[in-house]
Amino acid sequence: MTGLPTPSTPDGREGLAALLGDPQGTLLGFDFDGTLAPIVDEPTAAHGHPDAPAALAALAGRVALIAVVTGRPASQAVELGGFAGVPGLERLVVLGQYGFERWDINSKTAQVPEPTAGLDTVRSQLPRLLEVLGLPDAHIEDKGIAVAVHVRRMDDPAGAFHELHAPLAALASRSGLSLEPGRLVLELRAEGMDKGEALRGLLRESGARTVMFVGDDLGDVAAFDAVDEFRAEGGYGLLVCSGSVEQNALVERSDLVVDGPPGVVALLRTIADALPRP
């Protein structure tokens, strides 16, 4: 494992060894924002790390499957990530909206479900709720099958996030939706899907014996849970945190911590260098 970082846990070290010894039996899963792309104030300007597509492509033909699992709409993540048309990414799958949407290189289109009726209630009540709370400057993002409230650009984003959590949880409950907290964003969406369920589906689909998942935020906790369950059932797993000074929710859960998207890209390059050439 020359050149590779050493995971801090026995499970992580076993997971990395399994990845290197059986790449064709390995699923590589990634969050997008904060993992493959930097966090920025304007969500629609969060372009992926410029070296991420090539780093993924260097591994794509050598592992069972590479997947991006994101809270963004799938087509938006594809565009911002620069994934479309990249030679070598023929096996890339992008699951958007926490797994409700799917994009792959063959269809070149995202499969999008019908929005749940409760979102109409959220759209009609949310602006007034923000006014009553004295937070009218919070940014509402309509994702079609989900609605997100961003507080990053506010004067006190942490305070606004805390103040919004309970009222938005109540609104989600009244509307038959779930509330998903992220990095200075709260999202209201249909129940029954999260990154953990999405990752479990990919594991079944790929037949992988080893899984590495890289995330950075609260929305990735469910995916980390799925990897822990997979390991408990006899599989191998490697949990990687894309660390930052802003969020450390996954640091203690991780086998390995890297320094944001540049650290993720560096890790992928190191893994590619350690694998036999195709």
Question: Would you kindly provide a written description of the structure presented here, covering whatever features stand out?
Answer:
There is one protein chain. The chain is of the alpha/beta class and 278 residues long. 36% of the residues lie in helices and 21% in strands. It has 8 helices and 12 strands. The chain has helices at residues 10-21, 52-60, 74-81, 118-132, 157-174, 195-206, 221-232, 260-274; strands at residues 26-30, 65-69, 92-96, 101-104, 110-111, 139-142, 146-150, 177-181, 185-190, 210-215, 236-243, 256-259. The protein is globular.
The arrangement of helices and strands along the chain is HEHEHEEEHEEHEEHEHEEH
Helix content: 25-40%
Main sheet overview = 8 strands, mixed
Overall radius of gyration: 19 Å
- The strand count comes to 12
In the sheet with the most strands, the strands line up as: 5-4-3-2-1-10-11-12
Low-confidence stretches: none
What class would the helix/strand composition place it in? alpha/beta
Inertia-based shape: globular
Mean pLDDT score: 90
Please give the count of helices: 8
Please indicate the percent range of residues in DSSP E strands (runs of 2 or more): 15-25%
- Compute the separation of the termini in Å: 18 Å
Task: Name some characteristics of this structure.
globular; alpha/beta; 8-stranded mixed β-sheet; 278 residues; 4-stranded antiparallel β-sheet
Short description:
With 278 residues, the protein is an alpha/beta fold. Helices cover 36% and strands 21% of the residues.
